[in-house]
Design the sequence.
């Protein structure tokens, strides 16, 4: 377990850095009151049969013939109402970005229904989406968030030639799949940071493993 004070040490600025820091958004940068935003499961007839929190969705297995309803997760208005910033992680993102421009947000969400409204909310909380790109892994069409993020980050490694990649995520499934990128990129270091945030106390615990 890494002490948060140690984890907040700033990186050395390097314009030619081959290191990427990728941050999940939900439950890493922003906590959501689960009653306000959920992914719904519909049966083959279109009837809602289950509702999932973000964390439940990460490991959910969709039954045959069923489909997901992402309407609440696509709503910029719902995001604005439900999102509570996790200040320690936002400070970490901003500290790294200040010294290393290779910082991105990689979310399992797809495109929001109001791009400008969503960007305005991020900026209100100190994240400038014009400087820190939000990768919407939900647009990949992959069946699970873990597979979607695996594809997005793998593509970034191929495109930019990164030699070291850090992923900060609350889902262990996402992090394990992320570390499997080592098989395709044996010369790259993959650092998985599991983020556990207690919304009642504000305490953030980080556990780091390496592929």
Sequence:
């Amino acid at each position: 377990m890494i002490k948060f004070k140690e984890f907040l040490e700033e990186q050395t600025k390097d314009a030619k850095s081959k290191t990427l820091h990728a941050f999940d958004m939900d439950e890493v940068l922003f906590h959501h009151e689960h009653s306000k935003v959920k992914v719904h499961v519909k049966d083959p007839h279109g009837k809602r049969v289950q509702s999932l929190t973000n964390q439940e969705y990460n490991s959910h297995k969709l039954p045959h013939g069923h489909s997901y309803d992402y309407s609440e997760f696509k709503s910029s208005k719902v995001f604005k109402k439900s999102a509570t910033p996790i200040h320690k992680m936002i400070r970490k993102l901003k500290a790294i970005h200040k010294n290393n421009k290779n910082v991105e947000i990689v979310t399992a969400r797809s495109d929001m229904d109001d791009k400008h409204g969503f960007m305005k909310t991020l900026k209100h909380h100190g994240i400038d989406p014009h400087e820190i790109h939000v990768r919407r892994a939900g647009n990949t069409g992959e069946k699970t968030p873990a597979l979607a993020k695996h594809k997005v980050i793998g593509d970034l490694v191929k495109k930019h030639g990164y030699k070291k990649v850090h992923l900060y995520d609350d889902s262990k499934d996402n992090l394990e799949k992320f570390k499997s990128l080592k098989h395709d990129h044996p010369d790259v270091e993959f650092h998985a940071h599991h983020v556990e945030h207690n919304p009642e106390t504000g305490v953030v615990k980080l556990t780091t493993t390496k592929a």
Observations:
- Residues 32 and 52 are 13 Å apart (CA to CA).
- Residues 1-13 have pLDDT under 50 and may be disordered.
- The two ends are 16 Å apart (CA to CA).
